[in-house]
Description:
With 93 residues, this protein is mainly α. The chain has helices spanning 2-16, 24-62, 64-89.
Amino acid sequence: MNEQRFKLDLKKLDQLEPKNKPSQIEMMLTIQATRKRQRNELIFFFVVAFIVVASTVLLMVKAPVWFILLQTVVVVMALVGFLSRRKVYGRAL
Length: 93
C-alpha cells in the first residue's frame, strides 16, 4: 500500500516538474547577477550606516543637548507606539 502510494506521488512529482530546466550557463549568469546585486546592496548599506554613525557622533560632539532631546523623543515615540499597538491588539505585558 505504501509502495503504491509512493510511486503515485513520484509520478505526480514528475508531472509537476518543469520541462524546460535552465541550462548551466543560465544558472551561472543568474548567480553572477545575484552576487553583483548583493554586493551593491552591501556597499549601499555600509554607506548609509557610515552616514548615520557619523551624523550621530557629530551631533553628540557638537550639540549634546540636541542629541539628548532627539534620543528622548525617539524613546517616547517608541513607547507610545508600543502601548498603542498593545491596546489595538489587546496584548498583555
